Amino acid sequence: MFVCVHNAGRSQMAAAWLSHLAGDSIEVRSAGSAPADQVNPAAMEAMAEVGIDIAAQSPKILTTDVVKESDVVITMGCGDACPIFPGTRYEDWELVDPAGKGVAEVRPVRGEIRTRVKELIASLLPRNAPAAPSGLGG
């Protein structure tokens, strides 16, 4: 789960990167503590430049239930608005807020989010994990 204040820029881009890079192997959610009316147009344009369409997305309100149902919660400047539950992995990503910025200023944020999402995927779906036993005796 990706959480930022408005669920219009950073968390939307992170959710889109995770869906794009991990496919169906990881369930993706995003929300905001004070959701905006629409996704940031500069974030939409920046993601469209890399072939990812987030125009159909809409900011969603952060609820206690959706946090409780998440195994990993990535916060991006939402302060104390995100509830904390034992057993849930939390990370805080300090990223520039794209609110009010043009696409040129959003591109570096998009790139940093992509890098962090790739690291997150590697931590959740390790490529070198031991293979499951085949069940065949020998």
Brief rundown of the structure:
The protein is α/β, with parallel strands linked by helices.
Secondary structure elements and their pairing?
Layout: E1 2-4, H1 10-22, E2 30-32, H2 41-49, H3 64-68, E3 72-76, E4 89-92, H4 103-124
Parallel strand pairs: 1-2, 1-3, 3-4
Helix pairs in contact: 1-4, 2-4
List keywords for this structure.
single chain, 138 residues, alpha/beta, 4-stranded parallel beta sheet, 4 helices, 4 strands, 36% helix, disordered C terminus
Structure notes:
The structure is a single chain. The chain is of the alpha/beta class and 138 residues long. It has helices at 10-22, 41-49, 64-68, 103-124; strands at residues 2-4, 30-32, 72-76, 89-92. β1, α1 (10-22) and β2 form a beta-alpha-beta unit. The longest helix is centred in the last third of the chain and has 22 residues, at 103-124. The radius of gyration is 16 Å and the shape is globular. The termini are far apart. The relative contact order is 0.22.
What is the spatial order of strands in the main beta sheet? 2-1-3-4
Rg over CA atoms: 16 Å
Distance between the termini: 43 Å
Write down the overall geometry: globular
* Helical/strand content category: alpha/beta
Arithmetic mean pLDDT: 89
